[in-house]
Every structure is written in C-alpha cells, then in structure tokens.
Amino acid sequence: MDNTRETLIEIEGLYQIFGPDAKNVLPKVKAGASKEEILAETGHTIGLQDINLSVKRGEIFVIMGLSGSGKSTLIRHFNRLIDPTAGKIKVEGDDIMELPVKELTTFRRHKMAMVFQHFGLMPHRCVLDNVGYGLLIKGEKRAEWKPKAVNWLETVGLGGYEDQYPSQLSGGQQQRVGLARALCTDAEILLMDEAFSALDPLIRSEMQEQLIDLQENLQKTIIFITHDLDEALRLGDRIAVLKDGKLVQVGTPVDIVLKPEDDYVRAFAKDVNRARALTVQTIMTADTSKLEGISAKDVRDIFPADRGHAFVFNNNAYQGVLTKQQLDDMQDDDLLEKVLIKVPTVRRTNLLQDVIPLSLNTRFDLPVVNKQGELKGRVEASKLADVLSP
Amino acid sequence: MIDSSWLTEFPDMSRRELLAIRQSLDSAYRTFSRDYGESIENFFDPLLYFLVWFENLLIETPWWLVLAAIVGLVYAATRSWKLCSGVLAAFLAIGYFGMWEDTMRTLSIITVCTILSICIGIPIGILMARSDRAKSIITPMLDIMQTMPAFVYLIPVVMLLGIGRIPGVIAVVIYAIPPVIRLTNLGIRLVNQETLEAATAYGATPTQRLFGVQIPLAMPTIMAGINQTIMMALAMVVVASMIGVKGLGQPVLKSITNQYFTLGLLNGLAIVALAIIFDRVSQSYAKRAQKHLEGTENG
C-alpha cells in the first residue's frame, strides 16, 4: 500500500467507561485493572481501553471485532455521538473534543457522513428527501439539492425510486439509500457502522463491490465497522482488530492473514479461504509505468531496465506484454502488435481465486487496470503463491 | 398504669385541631380567592369570549349550514363518503329529536377543551420526554389528575371562579389532558434510536431533531393520545353540567333528578354519537396523515 498518504484522523489514548462515576474509575483502569475487577469493584463497564490509531486520507480503514468488542461504540466517537471518558480525537490536527456545540454541528454537517447497520432512514420522508437530508438540514433549498440527490440515487442504482417511502424498499435498497444519503453530503469522511451486516450474502457482496467501485473514483476516507473478516479483508486498506475494547492488531489485510500478532487474530485468520477473501488489491504492486507506442523504436528507450517484460498500451488501450528479449530481437520499425503476448488484464477488485488460473496460464505478471482501462499495477505470480500457501 | 387506649383506638388528632386546620386552610383560600379571584377571572376572559362566540356561531348559524360545514370538515379529514353519510345521519337524528342546540353547545365546549389540551399537553409531553427529572415530577401529578374525583377539584375552581363555562372548561381539561401528555412522552421516547442518531450524525440541531424526526415519528402515538383526550372530555360533559355548563349534560342531570328515562337515554345517545364521530374522524385522519406506514414490508 501507499504509505505516503497524510494522516487525517488520529485517536490518542481513548477510554470509554460506562457508569455513573466514570471519571473516578478511570485511574484504576489506567493502572491496569481488568474488566472483571472493575465491574466487581465499581459496577462500571469498560467499553474501550487505550485506543490509539490513525487513519490516512483516502483509505478504507476497517475496524473488526465480534459483538461486544466495542466497535460500534468506537465508531460513534469519530463524530461524537458518544463522548469518551478520556482521550483525544483529532481530525486534520484539531481535537474535536474541544469543539463547542455549534461548531460540532458544523463539523458533522461538512466533514463526516454516516451509514448505519439498520439504515437509520427517516420512515416519514420519501427516498429523495432521505438522500437530501444532510443538505436539507444545512438549510439548502430543495431545488438546489434535488438534482444532486437524484444523481446519487442513480449512481447507487435506484433511479426512479425518488417518491417511494423507505418501507416500500427491500433491505438492500434501503441501504443503498443510506449510502446515497451519505455520499450526497460531499463529506470527506464516511463512517460505516456494520453497513452491510443486515443484508443477505448475495446483496452484501454486491454492495461491497459497489463500494469498492465508488471508492475508486471518490477516494473518500472510509471507516468501516464489521464483524466479518472476509468483508474486512475484501474492503480494507488497513484493518484494526478490536477485542474486549482493546486494539489487538492494526495492519494491512495481508498482515492480518499472514502475520497475526496473537492467538485471537490467528484464530480468525485460520478459517479464511484466502483465495476467496483477498483481492488483487492486497497483493498487487502499484506500478503505472507502461510502454506507449506502436513500433519498437517508440519503446526501446523507455523499457524499464530492471524488468524482463512490460505492458504495452496504445492510445490508453491495453495491447499485451512485450519481453526484453523480444524487443532486443526487433528492428526499429517492426510493429509491436505482431509479437505482443496476449496476457489478460485483471481488476483491483477481482478475487484471487479468479486470478489464479490466469496467472498459472502465463509466465508473466498480470496487468491490473481500472474501469477506464488505465494501468494501475501488476500481479506477480510469486506474491500470489506466497499469499496462498500458509 | 399508663394510658394504653392507643392500642384499641387510632391515636388521631382531636376534632378541635382538625377543625382548626380546616378553618385556617379554608379561610386562607377564601382570602386568596377574594383577593385574586377577579384578576384570575380577567385572565380567562379572552377564553370566555371565544367560548361564547364559538357557541353562538354554532347555534345562530342556520342548522343546514353548520351541518354542511361539519360534513365538509369530515370529508376533508378522512376522504371517506361512508363516514360522511354516517355523520350526516347522526346529526339529522339529533336535530329531529330536538337536541340540536344542546349538541352544538357540547360540541363547542369539547372542541375548545380539546384544542386547549393539545396546546398545553404536547409541550408538556415533549418536556417530559427530554428530561427524566421532569418526567419523575409530572408523572405523579398526572396520576393524581386522573384518579382524584372530579368533584374534589371542582370545589376550589368554583370557589375561585364561580359557576359557569370557564370552571367547566378547567375541570374538563384537568381530567382530559393526561393521555395526550403521557402518549406524547411515550411516542417521543419510542422513536427509533438509530434514526435519531442518523439525524444527529448529519448535523441536525436539537430543534431540527424534534420537529423533523421525533414529533413526526411519534405522531401515531400522539394522535392516539389526542383521541383518548377527546373521549375523556366527552365523558366529563355530565359532570361539567353540574357547575353550569350548558349542553347535553344538563338534560341528563335533569333526568336523574326527575327520573325521565327517555330524555336521559336520548341525550346519552347523542353524547355517544358525538364520541363515535370524533373517534372515527380523528383516527381516520391520523391514518391518512401517516401514509408512509402503508408501504408493504418486504425487508
């Protein structure tokens, strides 16, 4: 992954203790008393304990944990639906714990949008008014936000449903409305609280795909909560594993699967069918260097020195693979298309199981392209093999 | 031996002491009502004018015009011709049996009492829903209002304001307001937490949450409360007639003292007819206003 992105959200020393006298219990928790001791002694429940994490701009950050691990509590701290007992929540360097009520409202209106497990739609408003809700409460006129809302509804595949009420839609459709509502506000940060957990498996995987597709163009910062490791691996650029209110491990999907830091994460990772859980995204080498041209002389000077083969494009359309050997054997005016080897392309979102046969059929790397056919990176067979053999 | 009569008889206070308490409280209240009665009465004057005006309007307007207006209102609220024809038949029967004027008086006082109850009750219900402390204070008060025999609180009201329409309205409102308060509170508290969270997350202010989410979603429950309030107001018609509120209650009262069985029955039936009309119309209006609930559940 790209590690050069700047940090957008930072959480430092976050504690959440539930009970009437949380502030006074805090020192005991900080001193290291266990959850059970605190409960027995004071009747307080520890929700979150010493959470430190940072989310980078433009990444999908997944927080994974089983029920009761505190993940839904944690995500509600990002927009202060819940106030922590102690700790700092910094967005672009400003501690949002310091914000007075009015500025907090402004912050929520402009910076963050949220998608809920059970959709959280307004049953008394039609679909269009639900999608435009974020803009409506900012005081924007209906005429101003309507085209935007209609547009987002079409993007999520619900064009024509504007005048329906949420209760007339299926669960999957309702969550699409929830997603459109979040996107309609143009907020940079998207909080998704078990957004797909209430949907059946087929719809869920459809929605995951849609989210990945959208993210490719939008580049939002997404904080995604889930209890499903397969989902976490599929969506996440980085994953934080939460257990009993503590962060156990934070890392890339590959780290979580291949280098679990303790038994808890190991137990999770063990059952994962890696070929089905990991996508090309997790193993691809980001590399957009390509050869652009039609004859040997066009590409001779730009052929990467350290590589045995390279991808050839013409007018931004993928043509095939050219090896160093082939190039060396060619005359300047020879046309490339005569020698190019037709290696199929893959998408960032393809599952490894779909890529394995393609990779086995060729001795070259597979090119990774986006929807528009632009080169984004490559899949090396050795990395694929590394990931698949535990 | 020490006096042990407390074992067999309750050690109550002496009659003289009790009398002293009663007298001092009574005279204190009498002084209060003598000093402030008039200004309190003046305070209620606008309400009295409105009551009289509304009553006269209903009585002095030709009956067919009033009837047309009522049926028109019913149609506007329910869009049901069936209900309209039922209402028409009921009012024609009432008029035919000579109870038109009394019915109009009762209609006017019930309408005013209901509007008053809603205007006072819904804000109190909202307050109760927002603060647990307010709830713990108001709930016992509502319990008292609902269980205290109406005659008991009629006494101070009559002492203060005399006999007439205003004390009647106050008595009816005291008796009828608890349901709308309770159900407003309940309705707001039952609003789906995630929906409310969603509103907060998108930056809704408390006012926007209240009017944009909580009240609309609590509306079915609030409407049930309003419906109950109307029913209870109608139930008070006879009691109110004892302190000089004219209307369908007075003939009933007369029937009790003189054993006029048929007169009592007819007027009683007229009250029942009013109750059914109010009930069906308000319920059907509430249902029509909540059209989003009609969607087929297929989640």
UniProtKB/TrEMBL annotation, chain A:
Keyword annotations: ATP-binding, Cell inner membrane, Cell membrane, Membrane, Nucleotide-binding, Transport
Limits of the ABC transporter domain: 33-269
Enzyme nomenclature, EC number: 7.6.2.9
GO molecular function terms listed in the Swiss-Prot or TrEMBL record: ATP binding
Pfam family, one: ABC_tran
UniProt-annotated location(s): Cell inner membrane
Catalytic activities: a quaternary ammonium(out) + ATP + H2O = a quaternary ammonium(in) + ADP + phosphate + H(+)
Keyword Cell inner membrane attributed: yes
Class in the EC hierarchy, top level: translocase
InterPro entries: AAA+_ATPase, ABC_osmolyte_uptake_ATP-bind, ABC_transporter-like_ATP-bd, ABC_transporter-like_CS, CBS_dom_sf, Gly-betaine_transp_ATP-bd, P-loop_NTPase
Bilayer topology term: Peripheral membrane protein
Highest taxon of source: Bacteria
Keyword Transport applies: yes
Chain ranges passing through the membrane: none
Family: Belongs to the ABC transporter superfamily.
Record's subunit section: The complex is probably composed of two ATP-binding proteins, two transmembrane proteins and a solute-binding protein.
PANTHER family membership: GLYCINE BETAINE/PROLINE BETAINE TRANSPORT SYSTEM ATP-BINDING PROTEIN PROV (PTHR43869), GLYCINE BETAINE_PROLINE BETAINE TRANSPORT SYSTEM ATP-BINDING PROTEIN PROV (PTHR43869:SF1)
Protein name as catalogued: Quaternary amine transport ATP-binding protein
Species name: Marinomonas vulgaris
From TrEMBL, chain B:
Transmembrane segments: 57-76, 83-100, 106-129, 150-177, 229-248, 260-278
PROSITE patterns, per the entry: ABC_TM1
InterPro entries tied to this protein: MetI-like (IPR000515), MetI-like_sf (IPR035906)
Topology in the lipid bilayer: Multi-pass membrane protein
Keywords from the named record: Cell membrane, Membrane, Transmembrane, Transmembrane helix, Transport
Localization terms from the record: Cell membrane
Keyword flag Membrane: yes
Chain ranges of the ABC transmembrane type-1 domain: 103-282
SUPFAM superfamilies from the UniProt entry: MetI-like (SSF161098)
PANTHER family xref list: GLYCINE BETAINE/PROLINE BETAINE TRANSPORT SYSTEM PERMEASE PROTEIN PROW, GLYCINE BETAINE_PROLINE BETAINE TRANSPORT SYSTEM PERMEASE PROTEIN PROW
Protein family membership: Belongs to the binding-protein-dependent transport system permease family.
Protein name, entry field: Proline/glycine betaine ABC transporter permease
Organism of provenance: Marinomonas vulgaris
